[in-house]
Amino acid sequence: MTTDASQGQAHGSAKHLYQRHQSVLPDWLAVYYADPIELTHGEGRHVWDAEGNKYLDFFGGILTTMTAHALPEATKAVSEQAGRIIHSSTLYLNRPMVDLAERIAKLSGIPDARVFFTTSGTEANDTALLLATAYRRSNQILAMRNSYHGRSFTSVGITGNKGWSPTSLSPLQTLYVHGGVRTRGPYADLDDAGFIAACVADLEDLLGHVRPPAALIAEPIQGVGGFTAPPDGLYAAFREVLQERGILWIADEVQTGWGRTGDNFWGWQAHGQSGPPDMLTFAKGIGNGMSIGGVVARAEVMNCLDSNSISTFGGTQITMAAGLANLTYLLEHDLQGNARRVGGLLIERLRAVAAQLPGVREVRGRGLMIGIELVKPGTDQADPDEAAAVLEAAREGGLLIGKGGGHNTSVLRIAPPLSLTVAEAEEGAAILERALRSTQF
Fold first, then answer.
1. In whole angstroms, what is the distance from residue 400 CA to residue 59 CA?
2. CA dist list (Å): 439 to 195, 333, 347
């Protein structure tokens, strides 16, 4: 049997693969590391590259490997489904799609819910925008500053993060609202109650100047923006203002859904005092690597379209089989509770480290969705070079993490599979501590 390293050499080095990548793929297709790595296989919370190096995975393919790499229950379900039928489109009845839709509708908290499956979070948000604008007969959308909602033309048009918005052209008119970033911006010095009141007043003032928009779309915790979040209850307070005007609330749960935050199954539940959202979008973790996204909406909204539609690949049998197996494992093993327990320990461990490092401004997050904001020591100025250096040092130490942030922030993003053990959390924290110290001193 060949070793992992010899397999990598047989197919050419990672450096050679990167050269091929650069010659045939877009130059705006971002990759991590000065010398990018090729991941060939994984198991549990670990992955291996083509050179045979083993890594503890604290990013999960951008919060997508939610339960574990090569989860036996999911791989078995995919294999068995592939042996029957892989695909038929939504033009035919699809038992796995109906089964998963029933489970998600019940879990969503939205009354009389309907579910539409897509292939990605981008497509899910795109669909939610289509529904909202058709239902409300308005192309105005409220979005949060520092937000990220996907890569399509419409989702780019509502993204409030300049680094991920390559064009200002859009079929939508987007109005950006304060509130997604607690510790920066004009209201950062207020207490939580004052922060919420100021953001609500800003929203009310904005709405006084425009025709009623179709919807507000918001991530309960901003993902690409650096795992930033408002105080609990902000979106509930927004909801009261929106409901008075008939404006819909879309919760973008692509990164926060399925119990990742530990305290709640959905991110919106930290803001649920005024009821659930009209729509929520999901993707990433539910498929554990398979391409599943979707929209949950109350029936009145979901059924508002007055023309036919189908999906070729949304809800295809093989992805639904994976989603069902993955969701069953998540619920039966209480991975939400594990995210709360292990994530709480990891956050406290990282905060203890950060207290000793002048270049760490803040450690924030919930459950297994943790951000470490880096600044130039002695200032409040973002330090993206430091973030890149820590990313490299962590990889050298055997740990994969992510990064993000807005126009004035640089953040390390930590989001392991929700089955992370206490021992693995300690191991990852130790590697990350060494990486942070090696680049700051």
1. 6
2. 35, 38, 21
Are 373 and 410 spatial neighbours (Cβ–Cβ below 8 Å)?
yes
Burial of 7-42, coded b for 16+ CB within 10 Å and e otherwise, reads: ebeeeeebeebbeeeeeeeeeeeeeeeeeebbeeeb
Per residue, the 3-state secondary structure of the chain, as one string, reads: CCCHHHHHHHCCCHHHHHHHHHHHCCCCCCCCCCCCCCEEEEEECEEEECCCCEEEECCHHHHCCCCCECCHHHHHHHHHHHCCCCCCCCCCCCHHHHHHHHHHHHHHCCCCEEEEEECCHHHHHHHHHHHHHHHHCCCEEEEECCCCCCCCHHHHHCCCCHHHCCCCCCCCEEEEECCCCCCCCCCCCCCHHHHHHHHHHHHHHHHCCCCCCCEEEECCCECCCCCECCCCCHHHHHHHHHHHCCCEEEEECCCCCCCCCCCCCCHHHHHHHHCCCCEEEECHHHHECECCEEEEEEHHHHCCCCCCCCCCCCCCHHHHHHHHHHHHHHHHCCHHHHHHHHHHHHHHHHHHHHCCCCCEEEEEEECCEEEEEEECCCCCCECHHHHHHHHHHHHHCCEECEEECCCCCCEEEECCCCCCCHHHHHHHHHHHHHHHHHHHC
Q: What is the band of 440 on the pLDDT scale with cuts at 50, 70, 90? A: confident
Model confidence pLDDT, tens digit, residues 90-142 = 999 999 999 999 999 999 999 999 999 999 999 999 999 999 999 999 999 99
CB 141 within 8 A of CB 174: yes
d(CA 252, CA 254): 6
Is the pTM higher than 0.70?
yes
Closest alpha carbon to 166 in 263, 281, 26: 26
The per-residue pLDDT for range 389-430, each reduced to its tens digit, is 999 999 999 999 999 999 899 999 999 999 999 999 999 999
